[in-house]
Amino acid sequence: MDFLRFRKNKYSDMLVHLLRKKGFLHAVILEISESSDMVKLVIDLPIHKELSDFEEIVPNIVQEFKGMDYRLKWNGKRVYLDIGKKDLKGIEYDESYLSDSLKLKIPTSFGDTFIDFADGASCHLLNGGTTRMGKTYFLLYLTTLMYIQNKGNLNLYITSAKIKDYYPFIGVPNVELSKTHEDMIQVLNKLIVEYQFRDHLLNSPDMLRATDAKDVMKYYPDKYFLFRPIFLVIDEFARFADNKEIQKKVTELVETAGFVNVHVIIASQRPDTKTVLNTRVKANLLCRICFTTADKNNSLLILDREGAEKLGKIAGRAILQNTDSEIVQIPKLDAETAYELLTPFRKEVPHEQERTGSEDHTVINKVSDLFKESDSDFTL
């Protein structure tokens, strides 16, 4: 027999019936509460059932509650199941998605979540999944919002064999677009010099209290311009994976540069550690976003867990693995809209503070040469 310790509601009979049907006799339902976007359940499992048994029936419970996603926590035999009900379909970009300078706001069934690139665990990111399901779509959203939120006071390096996908950044200050292996090596050399310069500054007597870029902002705000954000975005990394020099330099950056505000974003359909990403790089890409995959093996390659193969063919739908693992929907931000959003920056160059000891990263867009070589359209 099941014991209910709350006033019955429209869900209680359904949940009791489901638990009985799945063999959870003597489970104790402590709470069923509902808001517009979420249902909260607290259940004490019976002695003869383990957490792994309950995990197997969670999808059934979520389905019965018409949920989109769930979060499961536990303490001994007590489980806490939150079921998100917010519909993620048709989400369009608007100004409400703008956030703090290094935070990327993304909708989930529970509300909004954030990737905080200032957080050491999220300073770099791996972006994967089947083609046309959202990888480039996400990168355009990320780069556009990071640029706007920082009011152009950052440096953005985008390398892609399909560089025309990033045409909204034509003529935008502090953005460098590149396509070839040779260009990629030049960019990596430049960033390694910059990382070493910033590391030298942190170890100088003038910044005794600072151990990373966040500390510089806190204790030495007048010096923070020397540590302003740098994003290196490498789209379709597999095209560069056979170059040992590129692999070595990328490895150095992801292992050493995050704490000085240099962030590496790598996209690849299938980031196999044998042929695409070496294990040292992948181990440092702790924040991961995975769009629909062809099968569970590809989901395992990207997330180290199954699930992305079940997302369906919904452009922009993904699993974000950060502090928690949750289903997200990237707001639709097409290339034309991104171009319009970035147009004000083309008209007025962001203020550049004077600096010493490191080369200036004022952008030189090699647009004409790059775009003659690429006639691809913007793709998801």
Structure description:
With 380 residues, the protein is of the alpha/beta class. The chain has 2 domains: 3-84, top7, de novo designed protein, CATH 3.30.1710; 95-372, P-loop containing nucleotide triphosphate hydrolases (Rossmann fold, 3-Layer(aba) Sandwich), CATH 3.40.50. The chain is built from 10 helices and 15 strands. The chain has helices at residues 12-21, 51-64, 135-149, 181-202, 213-219, 244-256, 279-283, 296-303, 335-347, 367-372, and strands at 3-4, 28-34, 38-44, 69-75, 78-84, 103-108, 111-116, 125-128, 155-159, 175-178, 230-234, 262-268, 287-291, 317-321, 325-329. It has an 8-stranded mixed β-sheet with strand order 10-9-11-12-8-13-14-15, with helices on both faces. It has a 5-stranded mixed β-sheet with strand order 1-2-3-5-4, with helices on one face. It is elongated. Residues 354-380 have low confidence and may be disordered.
- The number of helical segments is 10
What CATH calls the topology of the largest domain is Rossmann fold
Report the order of strands and helices. Answer: EHEEHEEEEEHEEHHEHEHEHEEHH
| Residue fraction in strands | 15-25%
Structural domain count: 2
For the sheet with most strands, the description reads:
8 strands, mixed
Report the radius of gyration as a whole number of Å. Answer: 23 Å
Large-scale geometry: elongated
Please bin the fraction of helical residues.
25-40%
Label the CATH architecture of the largest domain: 3-Layer(aba) Sandwich
DSSP strand tally? 15
**Oligomeric grouping of the chains:** single chain
Q: How far is the N terminus from the C terminus?
A: 52 Å
CATH homologous superfamily identity of the largest domain:
P-loop containing nucleotide triphosphate hydrolases
Structural class: alpha/beta
- Overall mean pLDDT score? 88
| Major sheet strand order | 10-9-11-12-8-13-14-15
Low-confidence stretches: 354-380
